[in-house]
């Protein structure tokens, strides 16, 4: 791990320091599994007594994989080489008393309790964002958890069984078998692709009479699917879904309402009528991005009031070392955190003097970026591309400061992905292990994420990949590549084995069509 430099820390001889970790997701599991149990006494608290391998959830919705292939019991993760490295309580954290260093929790089985900490690591993830649109939670399905995937599968099967009944009218069959996906990001695209495969490869065998009634619509507010991928990958995904799997794409269309039987959307095309159009549905998957979980909303409301006129970032504001602002012994990682690094513009004077009279140029800053990025992550290669700068002009102090302010403004916190949450967990464990004394932690270098690429399954046996050195747009090796990457990313051999067996089972015997 290259984020934290090896250092000769003073050996720690004190009693184990109490670390409370909230959550059992990508960030928390990668944190506590890498922590030195000789220095820290770890307690993990989460309402979920298992880790979820989220990238495979769309495959569970369609029955391509069983739920067991993407969960890992936390109890087994709290042991390393036969030694217990963490305690686990199955509970929700409901409140944090930062002053007295206590978390309050509600057990899943009923009852409350409190736990004291020396360090608190908040890694409670995110939930689906409904953007305040009324009735979405009551009428649509989300896909963040294994339970969601199982509920979706049950709903789809129920709709097929209902549609197959003799008394169901043709019109009702069309409605029951219209599956709507809202959001054309990777969750929406992969889910639509898995539903379409399931219907084409399996349901068509068992319900051939219903296939003319089946339709899938994917509604996306932007002008293309997979908006964070290059446009040619988006175009490939759109072609595969529409031409091979007959998914109906509604681009530049924003959903504004969902009720039990219909969704309403408005067109974003310039000059188009703003009158909502209606689509009848039998099932809606809401995949429009991530929002804050209740605990995060509460901490923000109580500790980080909105600065008037300034839209705040999503998530708990943390500094470049992932410490919650104003709370040096509390850390936040993964989807629930938003890094707000120290501003370069505020250090302009110091940097200007450092550069010396001859050299306050963008190129000077570029040359020193690798070192300075250890304090200001906005200078890391992933965040600012110095190679693109044309001018090597000597800048007077005020222009140098404006240039730094531009870099500050261009900074975006790490995206809410599993790969970033994992890197943050490993980074923080390394900081904790190498800097066991509280005062050393403050000097740790900033977290800088590495981008290893993004993959998505787009249906019909085709996957796409946006990678650092090349891209993949389908092809017969794309799906084996996608599977190999995710198998390797699984955190134990147990899940890898279950996953491989499930893929083999689906390949030879098809998906289950029971509930
Ligand atoms: P999570 O993994 O969501 O874990 C949060 C944990 O906190 C959970 O255990 C939860 O139960 C717990 N928790 C919640 N509230 C509390 C509370 N009050 N007290 C205690 N514990 C609490 N990213 C990729 O990089 N690649 C992919 O292919 C990919 N595919 C995805 C597919 C789907 C369908 C989804 C939904 C996401 C996908 N992501 C992917 C994104 C990735 O899953 C998230 O970015 C990642 O899970 C974030 O990790 P986390 O640890 O912050 O949160
Ligand atoms: P996202 O934010 O990536 O995409 C949501 C999409 O929904 C956007 O394109 C947005 O324009 C659209 N949208 C929002 N509101 C809408 C509305 N009312 N009507 C129509 N469209 C609307 O969300 P996601 O796909 O859930 O992904 C969340 C995070 O998880 C992202 O960081 C993503 O990279 C990650 N993820 C990665 C993978 C992968 O790498 N294969 C898979 C799933 C999720």
Task: Identify the notable features of this structure and list them briefly.
515 residues; alpha/beta; four-stranded parallel beta sheet; 16 helices; disordered N terminus; binds flavin-adenine dinucleotide; binds nicotinamide-adenine-dinucleotide
What this model shows, in words?
Helix content is 34%, strand content 22%. By secondary structure, the chain is an alpha/beta fold. The strands form 8 sheets. The chain has a 7-stranded mixed sheet with strand order 9-8-7-2-1-10-21, covered by helices on one side. The chain has a 4-stranded parallel sheet with strand order 14-13-12-18. A 3-stranded antiparallel sheet has the order 15-16-17, with no helix packed on it. Helix 1 runs parallel beside helix 13 and helix 5 packs antiparallel against helix 6. The radius of gyration is 25 Å and the shape is globular. The structure holds flavin-adenine dinucleotide (FAD) and nicotinamide-adenine-dinucleotide.
Question: Pairing-aware structural class of the strands and helices?
Answer: alpha/beta
The portion of residues assigned to helices is 25-40%
Report how far the terminal alpha carbons are from each other: 44 Å
Strand order of the largest sheet: 9-8-7-2-1-10-21
Bound ions, cofactors and other small molecules, one mention each = flavin-adenine dinucleotide, nicotinamide-adenine-dinucleotide
Total number of helical segments?
16
Mean pLDDT across the residues is 92
Q: How many beta-strand elements?
A: 25
Radius of gyration, in angstroms, nearest whole number = 25 Å
Low-pLDDT ranges: 1-6
- Note the beta-strand portion: 15-25%
Q: Main sheet, how many strands, which sense, barrel? A: 7 strands, mixed
């Amino acid at each position: 791990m290259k984020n934290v430099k090896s250092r000769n820390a003073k050996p720690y001889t004190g009693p184990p320091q109490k670390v409370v970790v909230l959550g059992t997701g990508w960030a928390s599991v990668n944190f506590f599994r890498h922590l030195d149990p000789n220095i820290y006494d770890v307690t993990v608290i989460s309402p979920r007594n298992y880790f979820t391998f989220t990238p495979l959830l769309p495959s569970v919705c369609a029955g391509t994989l069983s739920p067991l292939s993407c969960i890992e019991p936390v109890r087994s993760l709290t042991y390393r080489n036969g030694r217990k490295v963490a305690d686990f309580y199955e509970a929700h954290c409901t409140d944090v008393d930062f002053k007295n260093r206590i978390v309050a929790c509600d057990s899943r089985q009923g009852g409350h309790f409190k736990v004291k900490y020396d360090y608190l690591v908040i890694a409670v993830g995110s939930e689906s964002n409904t953007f305040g649109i009324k009735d979405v939670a009551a009428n649509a399905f989300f896909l963040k958890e294994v339970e969601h995937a199982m509920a979706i599968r049950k709903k789809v099967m129920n709709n097929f069984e209902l549609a197959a009944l003799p008394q169901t009218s043709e019109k009702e069959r069309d409605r029951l078998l219209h599956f709507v996906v809202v959001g054309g990001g990777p969750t929406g695209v992969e889910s639509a692709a898995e539903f379409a495969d399931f219907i084409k490869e399996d349901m068509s065998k068992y319900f051939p009479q219903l296939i003319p009634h089946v339709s899938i619509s994917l509604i996306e507010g932007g002008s293309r699917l997979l908006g964070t991928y290059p446009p040619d990958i988006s175009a490939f995904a759109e072609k595969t879904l529409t031409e091979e799997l007959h998914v109906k794409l509604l681009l530049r269309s924003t959903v504004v309402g969902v009720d039990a039987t219909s969704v309403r959307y408005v067109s974003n095309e310039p000059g188009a009528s703003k009158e909502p159009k209606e689509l009848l549905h039998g099932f809606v998957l809401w995949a429009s991005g991530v929002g804050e979980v209740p605990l995060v909303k509460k901490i923000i409301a109580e500790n980080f009031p909105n600065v008037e006129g300034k839209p705040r970032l999503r998530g708990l504001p943390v500094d470049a070392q992932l410490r919650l602002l104003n709370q040096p012994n509390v850390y936040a990682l993964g989807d629930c955190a938003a890094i707000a690094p120290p501003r370069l513009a505020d250090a302009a004077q110091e940097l200007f003097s450092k550069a010396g009279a001859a050299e306050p140029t963008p190129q000077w800053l570029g040359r020193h970026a690798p070192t300075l990025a250890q304090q200001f992550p906005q200078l890391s290669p992933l965040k600012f591309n110095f190679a693109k700068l044309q001018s090597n002009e000597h800048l007077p102090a005020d222009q140098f400061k404006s240039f730094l302010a531009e870099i500050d403004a261009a900074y975006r916190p790490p995206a809410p992905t599993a790969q970033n949450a994992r890197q943050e967990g490993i980074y923080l464990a390394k900081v904790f292990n190498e800097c066991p004394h509280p005062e050393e932690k403050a000097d740790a270098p900033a977290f800088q994420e590495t981008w290893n690429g993004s993959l998505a399954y787009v249906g019909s046996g085709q996957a796409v990949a946006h990678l650092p050195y090349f891209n993949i747009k389908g092809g017969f090796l794309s799906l084996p590549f996608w599977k190999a990457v995710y198998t390797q990313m699984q955190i134990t051999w147990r899940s890898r084995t279950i996953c491989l067996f499930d893929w083999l089972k689906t390949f030879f015997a098809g998906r289950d069509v029971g509930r």
